[in-house]
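User: I want to check something. If I give you two sequences, will you return the structure for each one separately, not as a complex?

Assistant: Yes, each is folded on its own. Here is the first sequence with its structure:
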Amino acid sequence: MTWVLLLVLAAIVLGLIGAVVHGLLYLLVIGVAVFVVALILGAARVRRTGHRPVR
């Protein structure tokens, strides 16, 4: 779960830099892509460790 949080943090930082600095719009796009990957990884992790049957 640490990797997912780290990816979300990196996506936020890249997105902010890309939105603020003129000419670095590609960083915003990369930030959005990293955020989507983090969401997919987080969802896969939750789904994998989801509901286990009680014995």
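And separately, the second sequence with its own structure:
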Amino acid sequence: MVAAVAVIMPAAGSAQAADGGAPPPMANGFGLTQVEAVNGNATEFYLTVTTPEVTGKHHIKIILPPGYYDDPNRRYPVLYFLHGSPDDPIAQNYPALRMSDRMITVIPDGGARGWYANWLNQKTVLGAQNWENFHLKQVVPFIDANLRTVATKNGRAVAGVSMGGFGALHYAQVRPDLFSQTASLSGDIDLSVKSMDLRFAVVASLIDATGAICASSSGSCDPNASPYKPGVDSDAAFGSPYPVFNADWRWNEVDPAGHMDKLRGIGVSIYTGDGGGSPTEPEFWIAGAAKHAKESLDALGMPYYYVNYGDGAAWGSNCNGGHNGWCWEQDLRDLIPRLERSFAS
């Protein structure tokens, strides 16, 4: 764990001409060091940073509302959008993420298989893998210090697709003080023994079982050029995945569906298709995980927003109910106006 670095920041979001030119200046701090030139324009750009918490270089994509530079005194709520496996922030080009003129969107790198967690084993060939610390203890305060954000719980939401759906609910559960809304879009939100297929999809990504994980990934996946190399031990992230003599207790501890009570007071949204009812389609298993999370919320008497769009026939023009970006685009078109209303209230 790395303590936050105390630095003197420039006035957050100082006014800058909206001439389609350079992004706003972003000062290093909170353990993050920018190592390459900022790429993009004044309202959509990405940084490349290093951090002691996670080995390597990492992108943070930022989408500012079109009117960000018009009023230097206006502050904006922030949506933290978490990508799936094995994607990266730069590839998150959903048109819906650009539709809001009322909030900032931040897409941090979650790794091809980081699983939005501080790994149990920090001594694998991959080196430091403290993704949770990177995002919650570094990226969030870094964004608040550099941009004109509403730096409160009521000014933040966290949402994600697939692996990122797990991350979104998990982050809201471990830091309910940070987020007022959380949303899973086809998320791996049940890692209990009731959804062993999803648990072993996580394991497949860790050990580089390329054939299995390519069948359930949210991004492009070439078995001959696996994004999950080199493989690490199946226990690396959450300990033993096998439900024998409670050996899998860490998996149960981070299982979002098993701890929905931790989301009391937070707006919860869950989106899923059904893959056309085919067990060969990953969304079929995702639908089961979503159902388990819904059952938990019902048992707790908690409010939530739940959409199962089935085969996608009535969910946008291109959604087929599968585990893909066409359906997630429609999810976002439904979610973002709801987030805007929540922030406004």
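Because they were folded independently, the notes below concern the second chain alone. The chain has one domain: 33-344. The beta strands are 33-34, 39-40, 44-51, 54-63, 78-82, 104-108, 156-161, 181-185, 267-272, 305-308.
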